[in-house]
Amino acid sequence: MAHSVRSYLFRTGSWLYAQISHLKKYHPLVITTRKRNLDIFPVKKIYSLSDLNGLNRFFQRQYAKVTNFYYPFFFKVLKENQVLLLHSHFGNRGFFDLALKQKLKIPQVTTFYGHDVSMLPQEERWRKRFEVLFTQCDLILAEGNYMKKSLLELGCPDSKVGVQHLGIDLEKIPFIPRKLTDHQKVKIMIAGTFREKKGITYALEAFAKLTSKYKNIEVTLIGDAGRSQREVNYKKEIISTIKTRNIAGKVNYLGFLPYPNFIEEAKNNHIFLSPSIHPSDGETEGGAPVTLIEMSAYG
Questions:
Q1: How far, in Å, CA of 117 to CA of 90, rounded?
Q2: What pairs with residue 161 in β-bridges?
Q3: pLDDT tens-digit readout, 162-220
């Protein structure tokens, strides 16, 4: 079984890694454009365009441009490994993998996660591309009923879309009851990529109001902006909120943490705050954030 993802694996991709690493009946392999964070998300078989020499990468990309996104390298890898099923992660990756599916003559599953169902369809070209995907892909998966409804509204046939909730590894996240000792500060953790949909500024505003009444509380803020300008702009809003509300002394900002460090840091907090809004850019969560599920299991 092949898992196809553009970049394997981004720092916040623990929920995707769980889908790959916990397969029992099938042997997974990964095809990707570039590799990163393999020390955190190891996989036995991974094939990346970034492993090829410069000339070969140039050939692969040029060939893909004139053959409807078909990469000979990926075809060769999947053929040699006798792959029987292609699982494309994110709707745009599913569309780009259609040529590979057709060339190999194997079934394809595409899972949508959020950005791909709320942001991309704002562009006409992606609405048309998804029409093609919904016709040719064998199964479309959503992580929740709200996303399923959104996919149906985009034109995906009801017979093709299913709901598969994202799970977590309970053996790695034990339940630890949180108990306060006398004079101990109440520690509230907020974690997420700095995007407007995460509602972090609202959480900080609410925290600022609490500090006027309760002096024994503080926030641990985990996350950062990526490369996109919208994330950089939102980070500025977050920093501005902390400054203007005079809560810098009560906010412990740790930036992005590798997944194991994030889980370890969560042990030191009592409350996990996970706001979510419908932002101005239209992006929505695909379902309940996996961090919310993890922290619920964690106690």
A1: 9
A2: 140
A3: 999 998 888 889 999 988 888 889 999 999 999 999 999 999 999 999 999 999 999 99
Contacts of 298 (CB under 8 A, 6+ apart): 173, 174, 175, 176, 263, 266, 267, 272
Which residues touch 83 (CB under 8 Å, ≥6 apart)?
A: 1, 2, 29, 104, 106
CB 98 within 8 A of CB 107: no
pLDDT in tens, 246-259: 999 999 999 999 99
Q: What structural domains and CATH numbers belong to the chain?
A: 2-163 (3.40.50.2000), 186-298 (3.40.50.2000)
- Tokens 């964070």 correspond to what residue? 37
Q: Return d(Cα 273, Cα 296) in angstroms, integer.
A: 11
Q: What are phi and psi of 218, to 5 degrees?
A: -150, 160
200-211 helix and 229-244 helix, angle to the nearest 10 degrees: 10
Please choose, from the candidates 272, 268, 261, the residue with its C-alpha nearest in 3D space to the C-alpha of residue 297. Answer: 272
How big is the chain, counted in residues? Answer: 299
Q: What is the pLDDT of residue 183?
A: 83
83 neighbors 104 (Cβ within 8 angstroms): yes
Residue identified by tokens 């030191």 is 268
Start-end of H helices in the chain:
14-21, 54-66, 72-80, 91-96, 98-104, 115-118, 124-136, 145-153, 200-211, 229-244, 259-266, 290-298
The encoded tokens of residue 90 equal 């994110």
Dump pLDDT digits (tens) for 41-53. Answer: 999 999 999 999 9
**Euclidean distance between the first and final Cα of the chain, in Å?**
35
Give the DSSP letter string of 10-48.
Answer: -TT-HHHHHHHHT-SSS--EEEEEEE--TTTS--S-EEE
* C-alpha span between 6 and 272 (Å, rounded): 30
Mention every residue, 6+ apart, whose C-beta is less than 8 A from residue 260: 40
